Amino acid sequence: MRNYEVIIVGGGHSGCEAAYVSAKMAGKVLLLTGGADSLGRMSCNPAVGGLAKGQIVKEIDALGGIMGTVADKSGIQFRLLNRSKGPAVRSTRIQCDRKLYETNMSKALSEIENIDIAEKMVTGIIVRNGRAVGVKCDGGEIIYGRTVILATGTFLNGLIHIGMKSYPAGRYNEKPAIGLTENLKSYGIKAGRLKTGTPPRIDGKSIDFDKCIIQKGEYPPPHFSKVVDVKGKVQLPCYLTYTNERTHRIIRGGLDRSPLFRGVIEGVGPRYCPSIEDKVVRFPDKVRHQLFLEPEGLDTDEIYINGFSSSLPEDIQYESMKTIPGLENVKMNRPGYAIEYDYFPSSQIKPTMESKIIENLYFAGQINGTSGYEEAAAQGLMAGINAILKLRGEPPFVLKRSESYIGVLIDDLTRLDIDEPYRMFTSRAEYRLLLREDNARERLSGYAFQLGLISKDEYDKTRNSQKRIERMINRLKGIFVLPAKISKVEKVRKDRENKLSLYYALKIPGIYEKDISKIDKEFAKLPLEMRKKVETEIKYSGYIKRELREIEKFSKIEEMRLDTNIDYREITGLKAEAIEKLNKFKPYTLGQGSRIAGVSPGDLSVLLVYLRRRREDDKMFPVKQS
Question: Residue 625: what pLDDT?
Answer without folding.
Answer: 41
